[in-house]
Amino acid sequence: MKTEPREIRWHGLGVSEGLVIGRVLRMHNGTKYVYRTTVEEAEIEHELRRFHAAVRLARRQLTAIKERAEKELGRDHAYIFDAHLLLLEDEKLIGDVEQFITEERINAEWAVKVVSDHLLVVYSEIKDDYLRERGSDIEDVVQRLVVALSGERPKQSSLSEHSVIVSHDLLPSAVAELDLEHARAIATDLGGWTSHTAILARGLGVPAVVGLRDFYRRARTGDVVIVDSFRGDVVLHPSPQTLEQYQTEVASRALGGRTELAPLETGPVLTQDGVEIILRANVELPAEFDGVRKYGARGVGLYRSEFLLTRLGGMLSEEEQYAAYVAVAKLAAGEGAIVRLFDLGGEQARNSLSESERNPALGLRAIRFGLRHEPTIRTQVRAILRAANEGRLDIVLPMIVDVHDVQRAREIIKQEQVRLAEEGIPQGSVRVGAMIEVPAAVLTAEKIARTVDFFELGTNDLVQYTLAVDRGNDEVAEWFRTLHPAVLQGIAQSLKAAQQAGIPAIVCGEMASTPVYAALLVGLGATDLSMTPSSIPRVRRALTSIDSKSVSRIAAECLSCATANEVEELIRDRFGRQWPDVFDPDSLPLPKG
Amino acid sequence: MVERTLRVEARLGLHARAAARLVRVASRFRSSLRLERCDGGATADAKSILSVLMLAASCGTELRIVAEGVDEEQAIREVGELFAASFEEADPSVK
Asked: Does any CB of chain A come closer than 8 Å to the CB of residue B84?
């Protein structure tokens, strides 16, 4: 293995802009396949030694991680690694594996897997939701052991400078925990533009390329890698020539000084014909808070509160939530912030509260979860109402299907308002809005509009549910078409319903972050958009260059199209022709082969 | 042999972090320490984290703690203190 490794390229989807040259840091959180082999009687001793060596290695790794966590995150967070260490010392776990190797004459990997599977089955029967989820700690430790047995070395402890996080599929919580001082880029096998990993990476300004299929398998920790999310390319073991070429580009991009050096405008956003468009910020992590003021956002249009849970692990008390909501209200200042009630379930639920469902996107999630687990929603509502006394806050209800969902949620909010008043606890007034993100809500939008104070259109979920396409599934990525005429119809219809009822409507999906899509949204009748803060300057520039009448005409044409391809072609043609200086060809939808 | 009945007051129950603290404390003693669910559900060795986690003791669960050995008195006292503090570390700076 002394030969120089050859340069290999992968092409994926760049979901967060940037160009980084760094070293691979593999993060294992996918399942490693384990095979069963029988071993000779004489080999059993060897197998046991391998197992003990793997346990020692895993312990050394965990000790280092624990020490680092104590330093960087505080002792409270480090304790979870203490639990992992104790699992590795547990006589029952160790003893069972040894016994299995000896009695069944099998390889250590298989013994570890069988013993842990058995434990996980016992765990999955635990009644308490939170404790049952702790099975993931066992999985984590087992994964580490299996990796240690394979001889690979995940050096989590040495997150050196210019680390490129390489993973099969990075959980949102793992992104949230990244050491941003050192993690310079992310490259994953799975994921798409609207996966939570992508949204978080954009929010944190970490370049990311996803959808690389088999990159994780081929990359080794410490390998030199180039992540070019402008082109969606990842280059492993770059040749000296390639390296030099990219180094020059990194240097010239730094000199060209992208958005950072341009003075940021913060006044009202007016189209050429004087229509004012409000641009707000979507936020979830405190790291994104800086961007809200820096990029001139008019308050927080969407605060994804469930990220409080994935970051801190487990449900938060009313006081903890209260502090978080006050912070958001202060950040948003006079413009106010809209807190979306926990949008739990689906992909977030894998590491938080609900048990596994066959079809989580259609399951017990968002407002359904809240209505089923009433104490959770009541605690959250109380915390928001109290925090609203410190600054302007509104509540938006996620995944509303019809008026009935709204009524049930509003009833709970009202009861908590009354209770707070009776207890003499100060509270502020809040407006209550509905997320319009499923087709049923679009079709009954006129009725829903009469029962709420505002609408928020979540375009990511609207695309997913309208087109019946799982947004995280790479296999069906070609059917995930934001510009599908059915989606545009849904948006137009919802905006119209809001307008007729005289209530505001904010479009808050990722769609609003792309300048040409934002312009199209204005054409469909939107005047209030909420997006990743760092996208605001680009969107502002586009919207102040167009006029609302022209984009309305283009939008009307799009609405009469039959397919997403037709819409994309039309947009490419119309926008490219009318505003060639504003929308360069690279920023427009690509023509389909 | 000494025994005491305690309630799990920690909001999230005897989860991994709390269990880790319990096991660390229990392991300091030479006495054996056994935890039994008062509802008769399960029994655990307080020095094995796996065993403690398998108790699935959520908030409000009542446990009987049985200590046996030379330092049984002190063992049960310290474990009792841990339960009383909801498995938080004694830290004067935290209210």
From this structure: no
CB A296 within 8 A of CB A264: yes
Note the residue count of chain A: 593
Smallest Cβ–Cβ distance between A134 and the set B11, B16, B24 belongs to B16
Q: In chain B, positions 7-36, which contact chain A (CB-CB < 8 Å)?
A: 11-17, 19-21, 23-24
- In angstroms, the CA A424 to CA A282 distance is 33
Residues from chain A contacting residue B23 (CB–CB below 8 Å): 86
Query: CA Rg, chain B, in Å?
Result: 12
**pTM recorded for the entire structure:** 0.56
The per-residue pLDDT string of chain A (593 residues; one tens digit each, 9 = 90 and over) reads 445 678 888 888 888 888 888 888 887 654 455 677 888 888 899 999 999 999 998 888 778 777 766 765 556 556 767 888 898 888 888 999 999 999 989 889 889 988 888 887 777 777 666 666 566 677 778 877 887 887 654 444 345 567 898 888 776 545 555 666 678 899 998 877 766 567 667 767 789 998 888 888 788 878 889 999 888 889 999 988 888 888 877 877 765 444 343 456 778 899 999 999 999 999 887 767 777 888 889 999 999 998 787 655 567 889 989 999 999 999 888 889 999 999 876 444 444 444 567 787 888 889 998 898 899 899 999 999 999 999 999 999 999 999 999 999 999 999 999 999 999 999 999 999 999 999 999 999 999 999 999 999 999 999 999 999 987 776 787 888 999 999 999 999 999 999 999 999 999 988 898 889 999 999 999 999 999 887 888 899 899 999 999 999 999 999 999 999 999 999 999 998 999 888 877 667 766 54
CA atoms of A348 and A338, how far apart (whole Å): 20
B51 vs A76, A84, A92: nearest CB: A92
Q: Which ipTM value was assigned to this complex?
A: 0.83
Q: Do A83 and B16 touch (CB under 8 A)?
A: yes
Q: How many CA atoms lie within 13 A of A90 on its CB side?
A: 30
Chain B partners within 8 Å of A93 (Cβ): 50
Distance in angstroms (rounded) separating the CA atoms of residues A135 and A124: 7
CB spacing of A82 vs B19 below 8 angstroms: no
Distance CA A74, CA A347 (A): 28
Q: Give the C-alpha distances (Å, rounded to integers) separating A345 from A191, A243, A328, A403.
A: 18, 43, 23, 21
Query: Measured between beta carbons, which residues in chain B are less than 8 angstroms from residue A86?
Result: 19-20, 23-24, 49
Contacts of B38 (CB under 8 A, 6+ apart): B5, B61, B62, B63, B64
Return d(Cα A462, Cα A487) in angstroms, integer. Answer: 7
Helix (H, G, I), strand (E, B) or coil at A25: strand
* CB–CB contacts below 8 A, A to B: 68
Supply the DSSP string of A339-362, one letter for each residue. EEP---STTGGGGSSSPP-SSGGG
Amino acid letter, B6 = L
What residues contact A272, with CB distance under 8 A and at least 6 apart? Answer: A544, A545, A546, A547
Q: Pairing mode, if any, of strands A183-188 and A163-167? A: parallel
A83 neighbourhood in chain B, CB within 8 Å:
16-17, 19-20, 49
Residue reference for tokens 């200086």: A581
- The set of residues, in sequence order, having a beta carbon less than 8 Å from that of B70 and lying 6+ positions away, is B30, B31
In the block, residue with structure tokens 């989606």: A487
Pairing relationship of beta strands B2-7 and B62-68 according to DSSP bridges:
antiparallel
What is the β-pairing status of strands A454-457 and A432-436?
parallel
The H or E element containing residue A53 is helix A44-73
Which residue has 């397919």 as its token pair? Answer: A563
